Amino acid sequence: MKFLSFVLSVLFVIQINDAHKLNIELLYESLCPDSVRFVKNQLAPTFDEIADYVNITFVPFGKAFSNQNGDFDCQHGPIECKGNRIQSCVLNQIPDQVKQVQYVHCFMQTYVTNPMEQGEKCATQAGAIWEVVKQCVESKAGMLLQLQAEQTTSHYKPQFIPTIVYDKKFDQNAQDSSIAGFRDYVCKRLQKDKQDVCAPMRLKPIRA
């Protein structure tokens, strides 16, 4: 009985802590140069240090749209559509957000230079099963994940990709600040919520 009470109390604390996290949604595209730069220069170098204080959701869709043929048209062509779909399928397999960030960073760096590889190495390094990923990409499951990404993206009607949304509300000032200095903006938001987590932060070099 005491053990059950302990487990319930731990779960309760976890739920409270999770409720106080800053929710971030990243709307982006697999071949968008601005998306690649943001992930490489802003998100990836910072995330390990803020991971305990945020929940991040990746939405790989951008300015794409579904068509009457049951397929998608993307800003940077069919190869980008394939990349968005691959990412949706991989991200759906790996719930750990630190691994998700590592995967997206890896994929965005490799897919733009070698789309034929399809990011298989990045996916398997993150713990995804590549055969399952392929089945997802080539099936209705991949389409449904992209339709879900389209629904989320359409809700915010982004004018610029990538778009960064905090706590389900788009704010242009937050967007501009995040593009210029993601770490600084997130630190200010966390400090506003009385989470003094930024003072000891030091950026770590990220390999391309």
- Would you tell me which CATH topology applies? Glutaredoxin
- Amount of beta strand: 5-15%
Radius of gyration: 18 Å
Assembly state: single chain
What features would you highlight for this structure?
208 residues, globular, Glutaredoxin, three-stranded mixed beta sheet, mainly alpha, 8 helices
How would you portray this structure in words?
Helices cover 57% and strands 11% of the residues. It has helices spanning 2-19, 33-50, 78-93, 97-111, 120-125, 130-137, 140-156, 172-192; strands at 22-28, 54-60, 65-66, 72-73, 163-166. The strands form 2 sheets. A 3-stranded mixed beta sheet has the order 2-1-5, with helices on both faces. The chain has a two-stranded antiparallel ribbon with strand order 3-4. The protein starts with a helix and ends in a 16-residue tail after the last helix.
Sequence-ordered SSE layout with sheet pairings:
Layout: H1 2-19, E1 22-28, H2 33-50, E2 54-60, E3 65-66, E4 72-73, H3 78-93, H4 97-111, H5 120-125, H6 130-137, H7 140-156, E5 163-166, H8 172-192
Parallel strand pairs: 1-2
Antiparallel strand pairs: 1-5, 3-4
In short:
With 208 residues, this protein is mainly alpha-helical. The protein is 57% helix and 11% strand.
